[in-house]
Amino acid sequence: MPYILVLYYSRHGATANMAKQIGRGIEQAGMEARLRTVPAVSSVCEAVEDAIPAEGPPYVEEDDLRNCAGLALGSPTRFGNMATPLKHFIDSTSPLWMSGALIGKPGGVFCSSSSMHGGQESTLLSMMLPLMHHGMLITGLPYSETDLINTSSGGTPYGPTHVAGPDSDQPLSEEEIRLCKAFGARLATTAKKLSQ
Ligand SMILES: Cc1cc2nc3c(=O)[nH]c(=O)nc-3n(C[C@H](O)[C@H](O)[C@H](O)COP(=O)(O)O)c2cc1C
Fold first, then answer.
1. Of 7, 115, 131, 174, which is most buried by a Cβ count within 10 Å?
2. How many whole angstroms separate alpha carbon 14 and alpha carbon 30?
3. Which of these, 108, 104, 102, lies nearest to 19 by C-alpha position?
């Protein structure tokens, strides 16, 4: 069964909440959403995480990415860029790059930041770069999603975003939820069209 991989890292749960809404959009568009995460990276390099996380979805495996019909990649904003644990995983995907496993598949990005102008767009744009190296077809959000114009928190044409607040505990706004769902649905619909 074809599925869209929703791959993310989340420390406080904000990006995880976005991933769940994107997953709902994917399933509403009639495709399976496979949520996967990545372990934190320890400053003690020898330390290893348990293979199964204490909570939340399983850690991603290379095959999850190899066999997906499309990808939603999500991260908290860290100094205007993606978080290290996600980049750490992406840097292990050379075998997929060499085999061209992701060429021609739709891929998009989403992120959460504490502050409104804390670097969401720079995070999203930089997250697109490895997807383009992999040959993915970048999928954003069109302005026919009028929440892009009316939102007073997150939401960009480069992908859905969330303003989590200084304590990273603000719930997703109605606009942010709708944009997450629209993004998931768009990825699923695009993946279906491309596989026809
Ligand atoms: C090292 C570090 C750097 C961060 N840099 C930014 C930043 O540049 N802009 C911003 O608005 N928030 C920044 N934050 C806040 C995170 O973006 C915020 O905690 C995150 O969106 C919460 O998502 P999560 O609940 O999925 O972990 C930073 C947090 C950390 C730990």
1. 7
2. 25
3. 108
Residue 187, Cβ density class (10 Å: 0-12 exposed, 13-18 middle, ≥19 buried): buried
Give the dihedral of Cα atoms 162, 165, 171, 175; nearest 10 deg.
-40
Determine the residue of 35, 43, 77 to mutate for testing ligand 1's pocket, defined as the one with the most ligand atoms within 8 A of the Cβ atom.
Answer: 77
55: Cβ contacts below 8 Å, ≥ 6 apart: none
Of 7, 41, 18, 57, residue with least CA distance to 168: 18
Q: Give the distance (Å) from ligand 1 centre to CA of residue 116.
A: 11
- Give ligand 1 pocket residues (Cβ under 6 A): 10-16, 76-80, 112-115, 118-119, 164, 168
For the stretch 137-182, pLDDT in tens is 999 999 999 999 999 999 999 999 999 999 999 999 999 999 999 9
Query: What are the two backbone dihedrals, phi and then psi, of residue 64, each rounded to the nearest 5 degrees?
Result: -60, -40
φ/ψ of 137, rounded to 5, equals -95, 115
Whole-prediction pTM value?
A: 0.96
Q: How far apart are CA 106 and CA 72, in angstroms?
A: 9
